[in-house]
Amino acid sequence: MTDTDGDGVTDLVFLAVDGGKQGVKVLHHKTHNLRFYQVLGSPSIGLYKDTPGVDLDGIPGSELIVKKQNLLIVIHDRDGSMYQYNLGADNWGIHSISIADFDAEPGKEILVKRPTGVTVIRDRVKTATNM
């Protein structure tokens, strides 16, 4: 549960299947609106839950982080958009993710620990850098 749309009220977030399609559902508490974000492809996806929603861009409304095979997907519920980062081989897990502020700019960064190194994702500027 986190405020995903920036209205100051906590929303409910969960993995779901809708019409045979797998994805993430968000139930907006204030408006009772239910929004579904379909994640195409793999039958196996993971929702980062250590921090159910994190501010990755400095704009009100927490972002949601989803792993699907070699992709890390960031959902921006406040405007209904999703952005995908291709991290290469599918040899990292949702448990490999850490969130921290590394650049003192608005929004936090995503660190993904992989066998070949670390990828830093700055969703605010839509970049992924391998280190």
TrEMBL record:
Domain of life where this protein originates: Bacteria
The protein's name: Uncharacterized protein
Organism of derivation: Bacillus rugosus
